[in-house]
Amino acid sequence: MTPEAVMDLAHKTLFVTSLIAAPLLLVSLVTGLLIGMLQAATQIHEATLSFIPKLLVLVLTLFVAGPWMLHVLIAFTRELYGSIPALVG
Length: 89
Description:
Elements: H1 3-42, H2 47-82, H3 84-88
């Protein structure tokens, strides 16, 4: 394997990883920001008030975006398995 092939594979891997993680991270960020603003406005600083809504929204997001995330991961894995002969030889 050439160094260029290794770097290309690492680039594709990091891109797919960030693509898969982005929906959950963005939804968690927005939910945390909204809950934080609500807590600051009402001056209620309860830990479960922040944790439970984030957990519920993340589960909902996983149900909605999960099939797409799985499709992206399967497509990358198939491409990776298909490129093994070119990478080795």
